[in-house]
Recover the amino acids of this structure.
């Protein structure tokens, strides 16, 4: 459990309390997020700390927001949906690909997972590392590099969350799932994807479709080539 998760509600600035309540009740619970642990994590992790200062007032809006370097922090509902689908439990080993500002990693850590998060942009990785340390999330490691094929030397993982869109699920990622592991990822074209939940058990992989979504592209060996994104 992180240091932040032990703080009181009074640590959340008053101007955001009503917006947080609206986010949880209208954007999340009203749209089918039922896991109370996930709702509590979304309530308690200060999303406004993970967006640029000039966008703090929009942090709890029902939309993604730019964080620089052509990347975004995902819409709150999508973060909650992916987290709920992954069924994160205390003690899980989690891998996130496309770490961005560190928000999804913070949600996973709040739920008791030990997290490795890979972010391709070194500046965003440095900022996320500093931010998470400042907020007391001490069970998160931020790695700068191409995580599109996972982290084979750290496997196996109970949870893998891919926070960027790819044309397919990399076979390398499936090999890094532990028995009983869950992988959540957006798969499709550059501009439209389907959110998938893959579960691995008894040597079999099952797939569940969670709905349409739109993520920034996952660039790397296990995703899109940079020239494909530019064309």
């Amino acid at each position: 459990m992180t240091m932040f998760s032990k703080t009181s509600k009074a640590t959340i600035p008053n101007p955001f309390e009503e917006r947080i309540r609206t986010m949880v009740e209208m954007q999340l619970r009203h749209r089918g997020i039922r896991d109370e642990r996930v709702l509590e994590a979304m309530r308690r992790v200060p999303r406004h700390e993970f967006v640029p200062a000039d966008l703090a007032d929009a942090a709890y809006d029902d939309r993604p927001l730019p964080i620089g370097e052509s990347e975004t922090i995902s819409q709150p509902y999508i973060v909650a949906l992916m987290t709920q689908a992954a069924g994160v439990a205390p003690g899980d080993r989690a891998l996130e690909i496309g770490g961005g500002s560190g928000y999804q990693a913070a949600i996973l850590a709040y739920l008791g997972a030990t997290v490795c998060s890979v972010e391709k942009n070194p500046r965003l990785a440095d900022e996320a590392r500093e931010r998470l340390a400042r907020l007391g999330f001490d069970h998160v490691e931020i790695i700068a590099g191409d995580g599109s094929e996972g982290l084979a030397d750290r496997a196996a993982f109970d949870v893998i969350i891919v926070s960027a869109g790819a044309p397919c699920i990399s076979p390398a990622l499936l090999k890094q799932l532990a028995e009983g592991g869950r992988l959540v990822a957006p798969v499709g074209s550059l501009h439209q994807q389907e959110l998938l939940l893959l579960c691995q058990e008894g040597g079999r992989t099952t797939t569940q479709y969670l709905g349409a979504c739109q993520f920034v592209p996952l660039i790397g060996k296990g995703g899109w080539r940079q020239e494909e994104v530019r064309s």
